[in-house]
Design goal:
The complex is a heterodimer of chains A (about 290) and B (about 375). Chain A is about 35% helix and about 25% strand. With about 290 residues, chain A is of the alpha/beta class. Classes of the chains: A alpha/beta (about 290), B alpha+beta (about 375).
C-alpha cells in the first residue's frame, strides 16, 4: 500500500518536450510509471520516447483521450501557475509541480483557487513522489529506495535522497516518499501527509524531514501529539543557519526569530517525536 | 530584494499615498540645494538597508539649509552597522501628531497576504508586537479578490482612527495593496504613517522588500538593487546562478540542494567544526558552475579545507567530477579537499578524481568528521 501514487496512477507530463521534462519522463517510464501523455502547447500531434507517448496541446484534451488521473509539471517558473490552473480546471485530482522559483503571489493565487476546486497540489519546488516498486512521479532517483513500511515526508530535495539512502543501507523500505517542497506557500503540507500515512494500513512508521522557516513543523508537532498513533522520527535542517538569510529555498529563511531549528526540535520532542541529530541517525531511531 | 526608503516612497507616491516633499542627495551640496527648495527645515535621513538608522544617528533634523549641508556631510561619512551611507534623503520636516503603523506581508500559514495596522506606530512597533499584540489589527486579503474597501474601513474603525481620516486612509490602504501586488512585494510598510500637526495623513517612512523570484517581470525594479548589502562573493555567486552565503568558519562547503547544504553545515558543527559558507550548486550543475563555486569558496582566506558533498540525482557525479578537475587546474588550491559523492554516476566520478589527491568519504558523517580533523591539524587517512 501507499499514499497518493501507485500502480494505478495514469500520469500526464506538462512540459514534456523540454529538456528536464523529457529526461525525467524517460526516467519515470523506465521505473515503471504509467505515463499516458505529455502536454506542450503548439506541439499537439507529435510523439515522444520513440512514439510511445502522445503529445497534446491542452490538459483537457489529453485528459479526455487518456483517462489521466495525475499530472506532473516541468514548465518554467513564469508559466507554472498557469499550468497548475489548467490542470485543476481539467479536473486532475493530483497535480505535482517540480518547478522551482515560482513567485509567491502566484502561489497564493493558485493555493486559494485550488482550495475551492478539490485538486491536490504537491509542491512546487519539490522532488515529487515515489512509491517504491509501483510508481515514481517526480525526480527522486528510483534506485535509492526499496519498498517497505516507512512513510517519508520532506520539505527538501537532495536531503530526502540522503535519508532514503540511509534507510536503504540498513535494509529499511519505504511505503511512499512525498517531497512537499521548500517554498513558503505550497499545496500539500506535513499534516496532510501525516494524516494519509496514519490511515494507510501498510505504513507503520513515519519520517518527517523539516527545515528552518515558517511554522509548519510546529503545527505538525501539535497534530502528531493529538492524532498520530504511529511513531514519527524527524530531522530538521538549518540548525546553524544565520537568521535573516535566505538559504537557497525561498522557504528556508528565519524571520524575526520565528521558525528556528531549536524551536521546531523543541515542539517535536514535546510531541513525543524522536529528533535525529543528523540524517544517518534516523534508521536507528525508527 | 530590499528597497531603500526613498525608492519605496517614490513607488508609494505613484499609488496615491501622500509622502513628504523631498529628494535624495549624494553630496552635502545637493542636500543644501534641496533644503533651500524646501524652505530650510528638513530631515536628513541616511539611506542604508538596515533597521535602527535613527538610533545610530543616521536621521537628524536641520533647521537651515546651511545646517542641512553640514549634517548631510556628517551622515554621508558614516557607516551604519557596517554599511556605508552613500545617499541621504532630504525631506521637509513635518509636525508629528500621532504615529500609525500600516503594513502588508505574506502570512505563509494562511496562504494569504495580511494587512496589519496599529495606532501604536513608530520605532517601537516590534516591542508593541511582542508585549501588546492586541494593539495590532490584522486583516487577511484574498489574493484572488484583492483588498476590499470594507476591509480598510474595518481596519480604520478597529484602530480607532478618527472618522474624518477614513476616506484618505482607505485611499492609502488601497494604494499600499496595489503597490504590493504590482511590484510582487513580500513586505510593504509605512511606519510611521503620521497625522500631522495640521491634521493630514502623511507616509513619513517607507519600506519594501520584493520577491526575488518575481523580478523577471519587474526589470525596472530589479535595477534598483543595492549591492552594498551583499558580500562581493555573494554577488559573484548570483552571476553563476549559485546560492551562496558567506559565514565565518574554516570549512568551505559545496553541496547540491539547499536542505542538504544546510544539513552539511549542521553536521560540521555537530562534530566540532565551523562552516565557512552555505553553497547550493543547484540541480544539474555544470562544470563551469562547479569551477565558479570553488573559486568563490577559495577567495575566503579563512578556508582551511573544502568539503564536497554531492548526492547525484539530476546532478550527475561525472559532471561534478569534471567541474572539480577543471577548477583544480585553474585555481590550484593549497587546502586539503574532502569529497563524498553518491548517487547518479558516482563511481565514474570518483574514478575520474582518483589522481586528484582528494580525501574520499563514504558517508556524510564520515566526511564531516574528516573535515573537522583536518582543520584541527590531525592526520587523516
Amino acid at each position: 500500500m501507499s499514499i497518493l501514487v501507485n500502480k494505478h496512477t495514469r500520469l500526464l507530463v506538462q512540459g514534456v518536450t523540454g529538456n528536464e521534462g523529457l529526461f525525467h519522463t524517460t526516467q519515470m517510464v523506465t521505473y515503471g510509471t504509467t505515463v499516458v501523455a505529455g502536454i506542450t502547447p503548439g506541439k499537439g500531434g507529435e510523439w515522444v520516447l520513440d512514439g510511445k507517448i502522445p503529445v497534446f496541446d491542452s490538459v483537457k484534451v489529453a485528459c479526455e483521450s487518456t483517462g489521466a488521473n495525475a499530472s506532473i509539471i516541468f514548465v518554467p517558473a513564469r508559466f507554472s501557475a498557469d499550468a497548475i490552473f489548467e490542470a485543476a480546471d481539467a479536473g486532475i485530482p493530483l497535480i505535482v509541480c517540480i518547478t522551482e522559483g515560482i513567485p509567491v503571489l502566484d502561489m497564493m493565487r493558485v493555493r486559494n483557487y485550488l482550495d475551492q476546486k478539490g485538486s491536490r497540489l504537491v509542491g512546487p519546488n519539490c522532488p515529487g513522489l515515489l512509491t517504491p516498486g509501483e510508481a515514481k512521479v517526480g525526480i527522486i532517483p528510483g534506485n535509492i529506495a526499496i519498498s517497505g513500511n516507512v512513510g517519508v515526508v520532506s520539505r527538501s530535495g537532495t536531503l530526502t535522497y540522503e535519508v532514503l539512502y540511509a534507510l536503504k543501507l540498513v535494509g529499511m523500505g519505504v511505503s511512499t516518499c512525498v517531497g512537499i517542497g521548500g517554498d513558503p506557500v505550497n499545496g500539500t503540507n506535513f499534516i496532510d501527509c501525516l494524516q494519509m500515512f496514519e490511515a494507510d494500513p501498510l505504513t507503520e512508521k513515519v519520517v518527517m524531514i523539516g527545515e528552518i522557516g515558517g511554522t509548519d513543523e510546529e503545527r505538525a508537532a501539535e497534530y502528531i501529539a493529538d492524532h498520530m498513533t504511529k511513531p514519527v522520527v524527524s530531522f530538521i535542517a538549518g540548525q546553524t543557519a544565520p537568521p535573516g538569510k535566505r538559504m537557497g529555498h525561498a522557504g528556508a529563511i528565519i524571520e524575526g526569530g520565528a521558525g528556528t531549528a531549536a524551536e521546531k526540535v523543541k515542539a517535536l520532542q514535546a510531541a513525543g517525536v524522536k529528533v535525529a541529530s543528523h540524517p544517518e541517525e534516523i534508521p536507528s531511531l525508527l | 530584494m530590499k528597497l531603500h526608503e526613498y525608492q519605496s516612497k517614490l513607488i508609494f507616491a505613484k499609488y496615491g499615498i501622500p509622502i513628504p516633499k523631498g529628494r535624495v542627495a549624494a553630496t552635502p551640496e545637493e542636500a543644501k540645494h534641496i533644503a533651500e527648495e524646501l524652505g530650510g527645515r528638513v530631515v536628513i535621513k541616511s539611506q542604508v538597508l538596515v533597521g535602527g538608522r535613527g538610533k545610530a544617528g543616521g536621521i537628524r533634523l536641520a533647521k537651515t539649509s546651511r545646517e542641512a549641508e553640514e549634517i548631510a556631510g556628517q551622515i554621508l561619512a558614516m557607516e551604519i552597522k557596517g554599511l556605508p551611507v552613500r545617499k541621504v534623503l532630504v525631506d521637509e520636516a513635518a509636525a508629528i501628531g500621532k504615529e500609525i503603523y500600516l503594513g502588508i506581508t505574506n502570512d505563509r500559514a494562511a496562504h494569504k497576504p495580511v494587512m496589519m495596522a496599529s495606532m501604536a506606530g513608530g520605532v517601537e512597533i516590534e516591542e508593541v508586537a511582542r508585549t501588546t499584540p492586541e494593539l495590532i489589527i490584522k486583516v487577511h486579503i484574498d489574493p484572488l479578490l484583492g483588498l476590499r474597501d470594507y476591509q480598510s474601513r474595518d481596519i480604520a474603525y478597529r484602530i480607532d482612527l478618527p472618522r474624518e481620516h477614513w476616506r484618505i486612509f482607505g485611499q492609502i490602504a488601497r494604494g499600499l495593496w496595489q503597490a504590493y501586488l504590482d511590484s510582487d512585494a513580500t513586505l510593504a510598510e509605512i511606519n510611521p504613517l503620521v497625522i500631522t500637526g495640521d491634521n493630514r495623513l502623511l507616509a513619513l517612512d517607507g519600506k519594501m522588500v520584493l520577491d526575488d523570484n518575481a523580478l523577471f517581470r519587474h526589470l525596472d525594479l530589479a535595477e534598483l538593487r543595492d549591492l552594498d548589502v551583499e558580500a562581493p562573493s555573494e554577488v559573484e555567486a548570483r552571476r553563476y546562478g549559485l546560492s551562496f552565503i558567506k559565514l565565518d568558519g574554516s570549512i568551505g562547503c559545496m553541496v547540491n540542494g539547499a536542505g542538504l547544504a544546510m544539513t552539511t553545515m549542521d553536521i560540521i558543527k555537530l562534530f566540532g567544526g565551523e562552516p565557512a559558507n552555505f553553497l547550493d550548486i543547484g540541480g544539474g550543475a555544470s562544470s563551469e558552475k562547479v569551477a565558479a563555486a570553488l573559486r568563490i569558496i577559495l577567495t575566503d582566506t579563512n578556508v582551511k579545507a573544502v568539503l564536497f558533498n554531492v548526492f547525484g540525482g539530476i546532478t550527475r557525479g561525472d559532471e561534478v567530477a569534471r567541474g572539480i578537475l577543471v577548477a583544480l587546474e585553474e585555481v590550484k588550491p593549497q587546502v586539503p579537499m574532502i569529497i563524498r559523492l553518491v548517487g547518479t554516476n558516482a563511481e565514474e566520478g570518483l574514478r575520474m578524481l582518483a589522481n586528484a589527491k582528494m580525501i574520499t568519504a563514504e558517508t556524510l558523517a564520515d566526511a564531516a568528521r574528516k573535515s573537522v580533523a583536518i582543520v584541527n591539524g590531525e592526520a587523516v587517512a
